[in-house]
Amino acid sequence: MGKPKQEGPLQYDLEVPAHTLPTEDVLQKLAVGQDNGLSDNDVKSRKDMYGSNQLDEGPGVQPFRILVHQVANALTLVLIMAMVASFAIKSWIEGGVITFVILLNIVVGFFQEFSAEKTLGSIRALGSPSARVIRNGVSQVVPTGELVPGDIVELITGNSVPADLRLIECINLETDEALLTGESLPVAKTAHSTFDKGVGAGDQLNIAFSSSTVTKGRAKGVIIATGMNTEIGRIAAALKKQGSKIRPVKRKEDGSAGIHRHAQAWALTGGDAIGHFLGISTGTPLQKKLSKLAILLFFIACICALIVEAANNFSSKNEVVIYGVATGLSMIPASLIVVLTITMAVGTKRMSKRNVIVRKLDSLEALGAVTNICSDKTGTLTQGRMVAKAAWVAGRGTFSVGVTREPFDPTVGEVTFRASAPCDTATNESLLDASKLQSGGVARETAATERYMNIASMANVASVTLVDDHWNVRGDPTEIAIQVFASRFGWNRHGLVGGPDDNDSGEWQCLAEYPFDSDTKRMSVLYGRHGPSREKWASRWVFTKGALERVLPLCINIQDEHGHDRPIAEDDKKRINDSVDVLANQGLRVLCLASYEWTEPEIAEYGEIKRTDIEKNLTFCGLIGLYDPPRPESADAVAACARASINVHMLTGDHPGTATAIAKQVGIIPSHLERLAADVSRSMVMTAMQFDKLSDDEVDKLPILPRVIARCTPQTKVRMIEALHRRGCFAAMTGDGVNDSPSLVRADVGIAMGQSGSDVAKDASDIILTDDNFASILNAVEEGRRLFDNIKRFILHVLAENIAQATTLLVGLAFKDAAGNSVFPLAPVQILWVIMATSGMPDMGLGMEVAVHNIMDRPPHDLKTGVFNKELIVDMVVYGIWMSILCISSFVLIVWGFGDGNLGSNCNNSYSAECDLVFRARATTFVCLTWFALFLAWEMVNFRRSFFRQKPKGENYRWYHIFYQWWDDSRGNPFLFWAVIAGFVTIFPTLYIPIINHAVFKHKGITWEWGVVVVESILFFAGCETWKWSKRIFFRRREAKSGANDLESPEQGTALGGSETNEKFGD
Predict the structure, then answer these.
(1) Do 461 and 418 lie in a common domain?
(2) Which residues form the Cation-transporting P-type ATPase N-terminal domain (predicted)?
């Protein structure tokens, strides 16, 4: 929630509305320059004055709601019922202890969940929208909440306007203000007009309003209002109220409704309230599933209590009731939901440190199940720091740029020239003179070169400027590289237009702009060239650049050596395509440049001209090849994906040759495709046109889905996701543009780019990569798998413990004293102690366990099965039954093995001499169960590997290491280690402090019985280790058998085989 704005006039408040003032006056009153923006000190002082740029979205983390949630859940209700039953039969000690446990559980749970909610809130803040601003003369990206009045903001298509802006300059800007005005059509904006004070928000065309979306063009503006002081903030303040939680009544067309419809609405409303109360209708799918499990355990607890009563002929004696209470309590996994919440909070925090912001908690559960990653190339697999390496000027020749370590400095790096196309390598190269090059002399030598440089410089919105001997760049990496290349020839756009893009004082002026998007794959601008009188245009030119497939078909001419047009011939097209192939095979991204002189009559509003009327009858002027080197970590990340049975697909807008070259470099496809089966090789690399021509049936018949799709469109991405889903795959998709939103929503995990991504794409995504790095996707998958394993760990630990307690007590019904009453082997307070001491903190420690060494060397888990797979269910039963067998045997051994079998009388209520044997047996059983539960937490660190050797054997491993390696391994998770130690230590006061042992825990301090405990503990470890050993044998044999079947399968063929099974399980 933003800081409230101070009352009274502020230093930078405007006396009159900004839409009535010229741009210069607004900048002057806000004390800011449009080129340098605010300084850091200005930002700090204004933020202290105006607060954060955030709408009042409510109270945020609500302590009262969290407190209610601690009380209003099925598990706490079981404790409350047990408390009521204890007090009803005047069992004050048990009732008091249960009351204390309830209060302790609520307090601890409250602070844990409160901390988790604050952590999640801070993580969500990291994923909030960002804006590009100019501060200290440098363009930088900052969270929208950090913006202040006076900040200079840059907008491009797809951005959400972060605050109310007075536009300074704009090119073909249109914004969607439906949220503000209800107007369904985009509104064209202007920067240099002013309007009357009384006009409404919809007619303030020089203002871009907060929360509107840029649908076309680009602009620069100065912030005039932030947070609740914006136009949308005022509306939010006026409409601020809670939405109704009451289901509407279904009515007839005349508005009437029968009584049954009112009853239906109230029943549904009541069902919603109960579902929310019990947690089965809120939270992530796993949280809902565990809430349903809690309700199931609630009913099982009631059934267990009923069994106890039935075994004692429904007696109302205090002993029987207390036994029933104890059995019901044994089924309570008190810490389950809280530990899950904390584990997820810790997981999101860990991910944020690894450059992954989680927007939707559902994705935490989904990441570990990802089988296929569909990734963009530019800036994700590659560095996004492009350099123009080659430029073919039609009619002139090819310019090449040498190696440079300063991609943004146009004065660094040699430029050579040869008078031929890239496909003709027979001619020699000559080094160009640097001074002549940078003065513009080379560009002016021929009309063909000048025409080419005009396109490179002006069909381009990037900015490359020299400020204090440092080159500052702003814009898209592709356009920056082209603008730097033009600047090498002294042809920077700022020099041609005379300053800002909408400036009218330069030689050229932008009349209309049609931005690049992933559908058209080209950008066009219409520029006017001033005549001597500056009253009318000397000439007007259309400049276009884009993908060859989208520009060359629009070309009817090609320029000659004099820069004149001549009809383009088939030989010209062949030479163009051959040159593109040569450049693309070098890993260069190739763009086509074209132009023509626009000779239509002059009009008042050039922005109203349709794109189709501009982009036609073009003249081909040349090609430019850009090199974007792969990130150093991309190849290792792709290889790691292969080991993790995750297929990587590159979906890029680049030329097939460029995409293939980069895909080979990073390992997405083999270096020698010709060695694969013919049908597989043909399917490995496809263009979007080839892929989209196939029907769904034809796509499904492909031996393998394409690893590379070039010239990809947004619709192709959607079709790819659908094809993967039909093959049973679980897909993640990256995206950064507005048009990528459908594929991000359709994917199982939508991944937006934090640096280059549009706000629309971020809103549609599940996670955001703050560094736009493919390797960070692998980090997210690894964290997702680790989190999934940890959730399985503590769920298995909790439920196995519940089974052990309940089974022990139910079998203990057979232990009856002289009066015929069952004597419980575990007292109610003992059970509560085991639940609190051995469940809560150790389970939280299991939630913080580090990833196992081979977590990325195994296939993804099946999200349909979820955490409750067959292995977990069987483990839960085996561990639970084994613990209960040992607990019962310890009780039997003390009473009948070493004792005389006397169960005394009334030993469930109080201590007496004849109950001494029962109290000792009960203490032994209690210690055994406590130790078993603590040891089980350590055993859960790895589901199959031995506790005594949790890591693989190293080169220096010796057989005797088994005696102490477990000590080093167990300390690898300090939280779990000290939680287990605390459980060991705290058991002694319960045994030996007078009154507490007899009156509260219903047991007695033990002596020689410790020998039984030690032996039982050894047997517990032996049983657990034997079970894990048998599991290892079973899974090895199953994997060997599965591998043999795969080798015998005719579909296997190669490492990049040809089956839907390969697609699903990682080829």
Answers:
(1) yes
(2) 17-91
Check if 409 is active-site.
no
Count of CB atoms within 10 A of residue 724's CB? 24
pLDDT digits (tens, 9 = 90+) for 215-243: 777 889 999 998 888 887 776 666 544 44
Say which of 376, 502, 817, 843 is annotated catalytic. Answer: 376
Strand-pairing partners, residue 154, are 132, 220
Residue 499 lies in a domain: yes
Residue 277 vs residues 65, 81, 155, 283: alpha-carbon distances, Å = 11, 17, 44, 12
- Return the closest-CA partner of residue 799 out of 471, 357, 336, 218: 336
Q: How do strand 647-651 and strand 618-627 relate by DSSP bridges? A: unpaired
What is the C-alpha separation between 856 and 642, in angstroms, rounded?
Answer: 9
Domain boundary (623, 648, 680) is at 623
CA-CA distance, 660 to 685, in Å (whole number)? 7
Q: Which residue has the tokens 């660094």?
A: 412
CATH number, domain containing residue 898 = 1.20.1110.10
Q: What is the pLDDT of residues 629-687, one digit of tens each?
A: 888 888 999 999 999 999 999 998 888 888 888 899 899 998 888 788 888 888 899 98
Rounded-to-integer distance, Cα 524 and Cα 18, Å? 32
pTM exceeding the 0.90 threshold for the entire prediction: no
Please give the C-alpha separations between residue 15 and each of 18, 203, 217, 226, 1060, in angstroms, as whole numbers.
9, 20, 30, 16, 68
- Residues 493, 458 contacting (CB under 8 angstroms): yes
List, in order, residues 6 or more apart from 55 with CB less than 8 Å away: 2, 227, 228, 232, 233, 236
- DSSP character at residue 630: B
Asked if residue 912 and residue 808 are part of one domain, the reply reads: yes
Q: Does residue 402 share a domain with residue 364?
A: no
State which of 236, 269, 301 marks the end of a domain: 236
Answer whether 594's CB lies under 8 Å from 551's CB.
Answer: yes
DSSP, collapsed to helix, strand or coil, labels residue 242 as coil
Centre a 10 Å sphere on the Cβ of residue 126 and count the other Cβ atoms it contains: 17
* Residue 852 structural domain: 289-349+781-1042
Same domain assignment for residues 741 and 846: no
How far is the C-alpha of 888 from the C-alpha of 805, rounded, in Å?
10
Listed in sequence order, the residues at least 6 apart from 212 whose beta carbon sits closer than 8 Å to its beta carbon are: 160, 161, 175, 176, 177, 179, 180
CA atoms within 13 A of residue 448's CA, in its CB half-sphere: 21
